[in-house]
Specification:
3-stranded parallel sheet, 8-stranded parallel sheet, 287 residues, alpha/beta, 5 helices, single chain
Length: 287
């Protein structure tokens, strides 16, 4: 999807991608597939033939590996925390479309002009540079499980970004104010209720939103604006929804949800608990 290969005339890119993946799986190009509870593929192995074919454009670089003659590489995986400078000097950074790295590759001299996918999961980054906005072709960004403290406001200029992941970022306390400008965003992965983007209702292409926290800055009716929302969703602080009528404005009964979780911020009295369960019933009606 990040490469721009999936452009179905009708239907979702994700459905088209799943079809292609299942076709390759049926022909044993992929093996040992693992899926999560929502049937999303989390890992798989490639057949030896597929690995051989991919070597013309992809490189998995482990510590001590030779990197001579790698200027043709388009997809780079820096497996270890070794000499990333030597690796990125050997390849042509301007031609790279995918980088998986456990080290900070954004604060060096390399110019990633064609980058579509950047995965920095479990890397040693603590911040992203303001210059990340220059990665104008970027579709996928993952900074999960890092010590990153903030996302720069310039990240909201990545108008083609479709997937943003920042789960298990314990030091991340807030998001940029203008996340609403990420008009192409389809999948937003995070696990901290405090990090629900401001004006999330304006991200109308959003399909994945794992957590939504009701409060003064986020009314449950915002979910009603996210017509494409599907999959799993956890709604926190549901006791702040006043009544059934307000809950129905979330319009979850009309969405393709397969898992719904609801939680209270703290223990409530009997009357409020009764309201809580009426709200849950309103949200789950027609399921």
């Amino acid at each position: 999807m990040a490469e721009g290969f999936l452009r179905p005339s009708n239907g979702r890119m994700e459905d088209e991608g799943n079809k292609y993946f299942n076709d390759l799986l049926a022909n044993s190009f992929f093996q040992y597939v693992k899926r999560n509870e929502c049937e999303i593929v989390t890992s798989c192995k490639m057949h030896d033939l597929a690995l051989q074919v991919s070597k013309s454009e992809a490189l998995n670089l482990e510590e001590g590996s030779a990197v001579d003659g790698a200027s043709h590489i388009r997809h780079l995986n820096l497996v270890s925390r070794g000499d990333d400078e030597a690796a990125l000097t050997a390849v042509d950074a301007k031609k790279l479309r995918t980088v998986f790295s456990m080290v900070d590759v954004l604060n060096g001299p390399w110019k990633f002009k064609s980058l579509r996918t950047l995965k920095l999961r479990r890397s040693d980054i603590t911040e992203l540079p303001d210059s990340i906005c220059k990665l104008r072709h970027l579709r996928y960004l993952d900074v999960s499980d890092t010590a990153i403290r903030a996302l720069p406001e310039s990240i909201t200029k990545l108008y083609h970004l479709e997937t943003l992941r920042f789960t298990d970022c314990k030091s991340l306390e807030k998001l940029p104010q203008k996340v609403r400008n990420l008009v192409s965003l389809r999948h937003l992965h995070f696990d901290d209720p405090k990090l629900v983007p401001a004006e999330v209702r304006l991200l109308t292409r959003l399909q994945t939103l794992l957590i939504f926290a009701v409060g003064p800055d986020h009314m449950v009716e915002e979910l009603g604006c996210l017509k494409e929302l599907r999959g799993a969703l956890k709604i926190c602080k549901l006791e702040q929804v006043r009544d059934r009528e307000e809950a129905e404005k979330a319009e979850l009964s009309g969405k393709t949800m397969n898992r719904l979780f609801a939680s209270l911020a703290h223990k409530q009295g009997t009357v409020l608990s009764m309201i809580f369960w009426r709200v849950v019933c309103a949200i789950r009606q027609k399921w």
